[in-house]
Amino acid sequence: MDQKDLNSRQWRWIESSKDYDFTIDYHPGKANVVADALSRKGEKNITNLVDLRAMNVDLEVDGVTGLLARLNIRPLLHDKISEKQKEYPELAKIIQDIEEVKESPFEMVDGMLKMNKRACVPNVDNLRKEILDEAHSSAYAMHPGATKMYHTIKPYFWWRGKKK
């Protein structure tokens, strides 16, 4: 952004979108011939919207205009965890054995190993430290202590010895 001073709404957008890899393209008024169509309320509902908590968004607009947009957003941290799980021996073995074990707390969801719906975080490349730093330093976290930070990340992430 070229603007010198951002307002609070702009700061919130920056904070909430910093974990995503995306590009914003500016189209000058004359070049943006579809601006009017995009700003009008559609006649039909959006056909495909996946829950953001699942860390994927598929957006399709149909009708007379056909497919206007297909947007896939996936947080960088999600991809990083999924990739590193396969490299970490303990988790790689669980991933390999997951189909054979009945009644396991582990499951594969969108290519990520989860235990009781929490992402299994391997102990590689400071990944755990990155999660803890984000939980502690985020503008909305207000620098919580260890116990509050633990309770903040507990519903989303799992690793052995996390409470230490």
Automatic annotation (TrEMBL):
It comes from the Eukaryota. Residues 126-163 form the Integrase zinc-binding domain. Pfam families: Integrase_H2C2. PANTHER family: PROTEIN CBG26694 (PTHR37984), PROTEIN NYNRIN-LIKE (PTHR37984:SF5). This is Integrase zinc-binding domain-containing protein. It comes from Linum trigynum.
